[in-house]
Amino acid sequence: MTKTIDRPKITKMSDLALIAGVSKSTVSRALAGNELVNKETRDRIAALAREHNYRINTKARNFRTKQSLTIGLMVPSSQSKWQINDPFFLELLGSIAIALNERGHELLLSSAKLSAEHGIDELVSQSHCDGLIFIGQADIHQQLNDLASFNHAMVVWGGKLDDQKYVTVGGDNFKGGYEATKHLLSLGRQRVALLGDNTTVEGSMRFAGYRLALEEAGIAFDELLCIRPEAVKNGGMKAVQKCYDSGIRFDALFAFSDILAMAVIRALTPRGVSIPDDVAVVGYDDIALAGYYLPPITSIRQDRELGGQLLVEKLLALLDGEQVASSLLETTLVVRQSSVK
Fold it and tell me: What is the pTM of this model?
């Protein structure tokens, strides 16, 4: 078996120039793709940079040239169009845009459908962005790890995993799922349904919190009460309608988003089900609309303003060559009339 040799990481352009046997200015031009440097030399320097994990300090470079940074925002999901229309995404996007604008940098939004089935390396390399912010991990956790290994300046909104090599900012999804379910159980509800995709990183953590709350209450887990939204327009509402019309009954429901919680109400109300008398409902995110819906939605609040600021701060710190740690944000239960009159 061939033993893999770990090359030391180079952080200074002068060190890379020394290894390449060229001047520092030649390295700078080569990595920028300047045709004043012949292609053979450009390719050789690029290969050495990859071999020694070298990345240009883009922020410092742009500071010297008085240029602003361009930050790419990507949605890694086969359902990216739906996510971009989601109010939580829009509120988080607004926070990111404000944080970047305050620092004099530009935002480039990509609605590209990124998934494990399609390589994302080429898409990222063609983005021409100084740094990247991913909203969610979807099914591309390993691809994100690979990107981080090649020193792409990137941060991800999502859940923190034990083996991840990239920096994340996100709410405490396990606690959120636990608190939502525990609240419903505290109301005396016995059959707590769940609506959401528990195969995603964040969804699986919320699902684990849901399972623990049931276990602590001595209530057996029922697979029939786990409703997964269909990947179509109004998929959440249709999935709940299908479940209810099949004869499955529940007296409470935890939805993985406020939009899904609203879909539950839209699905059940025409069927004569009273919210919260017959079915108590809890959503997730606490978007602005949640407090104005009828009935107002009880929800698990995630701090989008702080989240957006941290995503930007951590990305700029990475571009400065700093060591950056992931952040787990507090989640809080906001009780409204969808669960308690």
Answer: 0.78
